[in-house]
């Protein structure tokens, strides 16, 4: 009886070239290809070095600074820490003290850019990990893998955000590391890396469900058994190891920081995000509502200051704020619906869809957050509709860029020119950008959902 083998959906669908006859010499490989490690990685580093030097010049000669305000917050917190104080002595520091500890060298004379260099190197290492993942776990040729990894390595947005002093490149390295380790059957190490990632920034916790569903997926038996037996069957050594290592790492880091900084660590690092109202530079569909909430909070505070204990204060306290409930649809999609629908088909594909949904539905959405899902593009593009159908790909990229540009034009009028563009300008622009993101998310979900479960182990 003959059997047929279905090729992995993660590999190219182009037919294999005919094997040369013994009398025909094999075709020579081109030595002029751009996509070699000796060219791509130096180019990636040169791009970041150029932006670092340009940023230093712009900071010194322009009123519009290149350095991100977040980097100034980081370095101020590091200065307080180096002086024996708390990083939370710096107003608006909402991060783990671990970041301030690591950035203490920025307080040394002449080392102000240490953190920028570290973030830039981290995102280059993340790109290297992406290329390794494609080669080791997908069997892709190194030059082709570097082509896809260059979507991250040579992306000017990625390089710009890292060299301005945003720490998102470190999160990119962490998430790329989780994918590589899980695919390499190292659940304990993957759990440690994910535990560190969730401590540094909360959002990577959404990947835990996808990883658990993906682990040991190919070992599930097909016999009909009772519900209890099937539930017990899902508890495998790999899943237990991953869960235990992730939780232990996360809880240990939190216990250490709580020991040093007490309740202010919990408030500023975690609890603050439940009620935060970042109403500036926010692409989110909730942006206009957050503006209104911020204005109402300021008015209530002024009223309470004038008449403590008055009715206005009681009314404000009883008001249900949008920022406290906006996470519900976001978490429903990214933690439950998408993982259960896609994780067994492709781990990186599911993680891309999760992240895209998390960012699109988040109450705060800035350009830095785009790096959270851009890190997965090199692992998704080999089988994406956006490459198979160039018109679709160009149209999606164009719509994404244009929708951002329209929002930025409205945001510029509001925040720099002082013009009131809330309605309809800013609100319509936010809705437009949200609609484009939901459309792109739908294409990603359809692509990943069309893969064979467990195809290629990728």
Automatic annotation (TrEMBL):
Any single GO CC term annotated in Swiss-Prot or TrEMBL for this entry: glycosylphosphatidylinositol-mannosyltransferase I complex
One Gene Ontology MF term: alpha-1,4-mannosyltransferase activity
Membrane-spanning intervals of the chain: 40-57, 170-196, 202-219, 240-261, 294-318, 325-343, 355-380, 392-410, 422-445
Membrane topology: Multi-pass membrane protein
Residue ranges with Pro residues bias: 15-28
Pathway noted in the entry: Glycolipid biosynthesis; glycosylphosphatidylinositol-anchor biosynthesis
Superkingdom of origin organism: Eukaryota
Region: Disordered, residue numbers: 1-34
Keywords: Endoplasmic reticulum, Glycosyltransferase, GPI-anchor biosynthesis, Membrane, Transferase, Transmembrane, Transmembrane helix
EC number: 2.4.1.-
Bias (Low complexity) ranges: 1-14
GO biological process: GPI anchor biosynthetic process
Enzyme class: transferase
Its job: Mannosyltransferase involved in glycosylphosphatidylinositol-anchor biosynthesis. Transfers the first alpha-1,4-mannose to GlcN-acyl-PI during GPI precursor assembly. Required for cell wall integrity.
Similarity remark: Belongs to the PIGM family.
Name the UniProt record assigns to this protein: GPI mannosyltransferase 1
Protein species of origin: Aspergillus aculeatus (strain ATCC 16872 / CBS 172.66 / WB 5094)
Lineage: Eukaryota, Fungi, Dikarya, Ascomycota, Pezizomycotina
């Amino acid at each position: 009886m003959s059997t047929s083998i279905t090729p992995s959906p993660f590999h190219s669908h182009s037919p294999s070239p005919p094997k040369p006859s013994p009398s025909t010499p094999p075709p020579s490989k081109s030595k002029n290809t751009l996509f070699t490690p000796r060219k791509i990685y130096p180019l990636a580093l040169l791009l970041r070095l150029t932006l670092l030097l340009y940023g230093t010049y712009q900071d010194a000669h322009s009123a519009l600074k290149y350095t991100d305000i977040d980097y100034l917050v980081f370095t101020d917190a590091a200065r307080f820490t180096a002086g024996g104080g708390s990083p939370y002595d710096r107003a608006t520091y909402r991060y783990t003290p671990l970041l301030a500890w690591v950035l203490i060298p920025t307080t040394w004379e002449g080392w102000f850019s240490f953190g920028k260099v570290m973030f830039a190197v981290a995102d280059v290492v993340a790109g290297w990990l992406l290329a390794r993942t494609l080669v080791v776990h997908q069997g892709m040729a190194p030059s082709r893998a570097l082509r896809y990894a260059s979507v991250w390595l040579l992306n000017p947005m990625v390089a710009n955000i890292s060299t301005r002093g945003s720490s998102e490149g470190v999160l990119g390295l962490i998430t790329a590391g989780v994918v590589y380790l899980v695919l390499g059957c190292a659940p304990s190490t993957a759990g440690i890396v994910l535990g560190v990632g969730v401590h540094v920034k909360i959002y990577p916790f959404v990947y835990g469900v996808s990883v658990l569903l993906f682990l040991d997926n190919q070992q599930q038996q097909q016999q009909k058994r009772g519900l209890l037996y099937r539930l017990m069957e899902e508890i495998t050594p790999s899943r237990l190891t991953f869960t235990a290592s992730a939780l232990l790492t996360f809880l240990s880091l939190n216990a250490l920081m709580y020991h040093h900084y007490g309740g202010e660590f919990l408030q500023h690092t975690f609890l603050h995000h439940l009620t935060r109202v970042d109403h500036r530079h926010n692409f989110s569909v909730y942006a206009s509502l957050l503006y209104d909430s911020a204005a109402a909070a300021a008015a209530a505070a002024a009223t309470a200051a004038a008449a403590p204990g008055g009715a206005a204060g009681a009314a404000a306290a009883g008001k249900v704020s949008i920022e406290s409930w906006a996470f519900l649809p976001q978490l429903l999609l990214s933690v439950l619906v998408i993982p259960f629908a896609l994780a067994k088909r492709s781990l990186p594909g599911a993680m891309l869809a999760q992240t895209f949904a998390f960012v699109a539905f988040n109450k705060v959405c800035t350009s830095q957050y785009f790096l959270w899902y851009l890190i997965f593009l090199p692992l998704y593009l080999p089988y994406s509709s956006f490459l198979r159908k160039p018109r679709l790909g160009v149209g999606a990229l164009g719509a994404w860029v244009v929708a951002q540009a329209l929002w930025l034009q409205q945001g510029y009028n509001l925040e720099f020119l002082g013009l009131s563009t809330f309605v309809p300008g800013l609100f319509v622009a936010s809705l437009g950008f949200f609609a484009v993101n939901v459309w792109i998310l739908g294409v990603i979900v359809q692509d990943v959902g069309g893969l064979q479960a467990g195809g290629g182990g990728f």
